[in-house]
Amino acid sequence: MTTTTQKIETDVVLIGAGIMSATLGLLLKELQPDLKIEIFERLDVAAAESSDAWNNAGTGHAAFCELNYTPELEDGSVDVKKAVKISESFEVSRQFWAYLVEKNVLQNPENFIKSVPHLSFVWGDENVEYLRKRFNELQKFHLFKEMEFTDDANQIKEWAPLVMEGRKTKDKIAATTMKYGTDVNFGALTRSIFKYLETLDGVTVHFNHEVSSLKKRDTGIWRIKVKDLASGEKKKVYTPFVFIGAGGGSLLLLEKANIPEGEGYGGFPVSGQWLKCTNPEVIKKHAAKVYGKASVGAPPMSVPHIDTRMIDGEKALLFGPYAGFSTKFLKNGSYFDLIKSIELDNIKPMLGAGMKNIPLTKYLIEQVFQSSNDRMKALKEYVPSAKKEDWVLETAGQRVQVIKKDKDGNGVLEFGTEVVAAHDGSLAVLLGASPGASTATSIMIELLDKCFPEKMKSEAWQNKLKNMIPSYGQSLCQNTKLCDQVRKKTNEVLKLKV
C-alpha cells in the first residue's frame, strides 16, 4: 500500500489527549484565540490512559487526606509545605473549572465533580500521634481551617461507618475529616474539554496518530513525524512549540526530542490494581475517601484508601491500589518500553536510584506475588466486615515515577510531577504522577511562564488569567478573605454540596 506524506504548519502541537493537553490547549485558546493547535493521540479516544476514571484514584488531590504529602521528619516534626502547595493548586483548578462552567464550556458539573468528605484514618500509638501532629500543623493554615480531628471511635463511626463496622482492635485509632473533599472524574472532564476544543477554529484533534520522531531544525522550528495508524498516512508537522503530555509515554518522546535539559532522566514503571465492590448494600454504607498510611517502601501512588467514586452517574466503591511491576510505560504500551528508555546518559541515575530504593523493589515483588487472600487481608484493615464474594479485582492505570540526576550525577527517584522544558521554551514535557491531574491548571500556568514568558507578562494575558482564575498572582494561604470568597463561589458554580 502506498502512503502519502502530508505537511502541516501550526503554532502549537500537543502530544497526548489527556487532562494536561486539554488544560493547556484550552488555556492557550482563551489567552490567544487565533492560535492554530494540532493535537495528536495514539489511541482512538481522549483520556483513555492516566486520565480515565478507572485508571486513577479520582481524588481531587487537595492534601486533605493524603498522608504521603505530609512526611514525618527525623526530628519527629511533620512537614506540611507540600500539602499547602497542593491545596492551593487544587483551588486554582476549581476556579478554572468554575470559569468554564460559567462560560458554558463545561455543562452539568455534577458529571465530573462531586462533594465527598476526605478522611485520614490510622491506628497504633505512633500513627495516632503522627496524625495529631499533622492536624496541628495544618491548622496553622487557613486552607485547612475546617479540618476536624478525633480519636473517638464513635465519632469515626459517624464519619465512616463501614470502616468501623466489625472492628475489634484494641489499638488506638484516630481520624481527620475535611468537608471540602471532592471526587473528580478526570476522564469525563477531559473528554468534555476536548469536545469543546474540537468546535474551535484553528484546533484539530487527530486520534489514532502516533508520533515517531521529533527534531529541532536550525530555524528553531520543530519537525514532528506522525503516522495515522488507521490509514497508514504519514504527516510532517512543523511548529515553534511542542508540549508532550503523554502520561507514561512522555519519557520516550523526551528522549526522541534530544534536548540537553532531558539528559539523565529515566523512569520506573509501577502498575496498579483495585478491588471493586459488587454488593450494592455495602456500597451504600460508605460515602467518603478514607486514606491510610503507605507500607514501608511503597510508592506514593500506592497509599491505601477505601474510596467512594461516582463514575458515569453510578456510585462505586474501590479499595487499593495494589501496586505491581510491569515494563510497560502505558496501560496500552509495549513490554519493551523500559528497555527502550535506557540510554547512556540515564544508566547511572537509574542504577543509582535502584540501589537507593531497595525497600521499594522488595515491596513491588511482594505485591506482584500477592494472593487473593493477601489482598483481602489488606482490605480488612480498612473494612473489617469485608466478604471475599463482594469484591472483584480490576486493573488500574500504569504510572512512571521520574528518575533524575542529583547534584552528584547519581540517581534519585522523584515522586510527583515535573515539567522539563527546553531552555528556549520551544518544548515542554510533563513527567511523573500524583497529584498530576488535580493540579493540572497550576502546572500548565507554570509551563506558560517558562515557555511564553513575554506574553505572560503582557497586560492582555494577565487580565485574562485573572478573569479565569480570580486568585491568580495571589496566595490563598495568606489571603484568608479571598480564600473564603473563592471557595464559596466555586462551590456554588460547581454545585458542590458542602
Helical content stands at 25-40%
Calculate the mean pLDDT score and round it.
90
Count of DSSP strands: 21
CATH homologous group name: FAD/NAD(P)-binding domain
Strand portion: 25-35%
**What is the CATH third-level topology name?**
FAD/NAD(P)-binding domain
Strand order of the largest sheet: 6-7-5-15-16-17-14-18-19
Question: Segments where pLDDT lies below 50 for 5+ residues?
Answer: none
Counted up, domains total: 1
**How would you sum up the global shape?**
globular
The description of the largest β-sheet is: 9 strands, mixed
Q: Termini separation (Å)? A: 59 Å
Q: What is the level 1 CATH name?
A: Alpha Beta
Which structural class is indicated by helix and strand composition?
Answer: alpha/beta
Total number of helices: 16
CATH architecture: 3-Layer(bba) Sandwich
- What integer value in Å does the Rg equal? 23 Å
Describe what is shown at a glance.
The protein is an alpha/beta fold and 498 residues long. It has one domain (5-459): FAD/NAD(P)-binding domain (3-Layer(bba) Sandwich).
Features:
16 helices; 21 strands; alpha/beta; FAD/NAD(P)-binding domain; oxidoreductase
